[in-house]
Amino acid sequence: MPALTETVRPSILYPSGMTKRESLLREIDGVPDSVLDEVADFVHFLKARVIRDGMATAVASESSLKKDWLRPEEDEAWQDL
Questions:
Q1: DSSP-derived secondary structure for 7-47
Q2: What is the spatial distance between Cα 31 and Cα 1, in angstroms, rounded to a whole number?
Q3: What is the pTM of this model?
């Protein structure tokens, strides 16, 4: 396994015939128990970032689309639903 300061090439991290998930799970199996809390914290950080970025996109979209949503034609089109 390369030192932590070295760059890991994707071909090493994701050997052929394995999915990224399978390869990462295999890598995690090799991590010492002493750093598993840190690995879990990083996974939680990544998941939170995905949610945060999705919310930022939704907020940005709302402000640009509201000019179309707040028209009488839109109200009329949706009144029967």
A1: PPPHHHHS-TTS-HHHHHHHHHHTS-GGGHHHHHHHHHHHH
A2: 11
A3: 0.52
CA–CA dist 56, 76 (Å, integer): 29
Mind listing the pLDDT tens digit for each residue in 4-44? 555 555 555 667 788 989 988 999 999 999 999 999 999 99
DSSP codes joined into one string, 1-18: ---TTSPPPHHHHS-TTS
Give, as one character, the DSSP assignment of residue 70: T
3-state secondary structure of 49: helix
Residues comprising the chain, all counted:
81
Pair 74, 68: CB distance under 8 Å? yes
Q: What is the distance between the alpha carbons of residues 58 and 74, in angstroms, rounded to a whole number?
A: 20
Whole-angstrom CA distances from 47 to 3, 59, 73 are 26, 19, 39
